[in-house]
User: Fold this.
Amino acid sequence: MSTIQQHYQSVTQRLQQACADCGRDPASVRLLAVSKTKPADMVEAVYNLGQRAFGENYVQDGMDKITALSHLDDIEWHFIGPLQSNKSRIVAEHFHWLETLDREKIARRLHEQRPHTMPPLNVLLQVNISGEEQKSGVLPADVEALAQSIASLDRLQLRGLMCIPEHTDDNEVLAEQFRAMKALSQQLQQQHPQADVLSMGMSGDLELAIACGSTEVRIGTDIFGARDYPASKS
Ligand SMILES: *Cc1c(COP(=O)(O)O)cnc(C)c1O
Assistant:
């Protein structure tokens, strides 16, 4: 068995175990394989193991792989990095999901740029749940207002929330932030029932995120190995 196959299987087993430990159906948690900085042939190897959803952080790095793998017609590309407005067209024209929407201005651009030949772009609002000043994301108090303005843009489909919690080894602090996200997600769904995705949990904390209600974990390192070169800012 190849190393990547071993890594992939051990991640899917961890995911299943984490669901079993808190009495959740494994089908209720999507695995997003975060392939940023990794080459297209590695993505294809993981696709061949059955994985369909891949996450990319850099517009050009992602676009190169989308082009190289265009023969895989059921692969699903999620953009999960910070998005500058001058790069929004590439995301609008080539990705299936954007998980880091946090501004109305970008939402309007994406709405105008999304081709009519494609289904609406699925979007998650990135929430700055730790309230750290330098961090991207909409503050919890502003989620509903942004959700409202997206609801009027028919080329976008609001699907839920995403967060990158504070970088800490303190599981209690992390759990508090994950639980706050879960509460926010439930609140959002009262007005926007289709916004039921909650993207949280990475290689180091997927068990805790699942126990707190995550419906999508984003795993890079534990599938693809350590990132081996600093991706150039695209
Ligand atoms: C890189 C990245 C991940 C994956 O992190 P790992 O620790 O490598 O699993 C998940 N989410 C986002 C937003 C990322 O940028």
Q: What stands out?
A: The pocket of pyridoxal-5'-phosphate is lined by residues 34, 36, 57, 80, 164, 202-203, 218-222 (CB under 6 Å). The CA atoms of residues 99 and 125 lie 6 Å apart. The chain has a mean pLDDT of 96. The chain has one domain: 3-224.
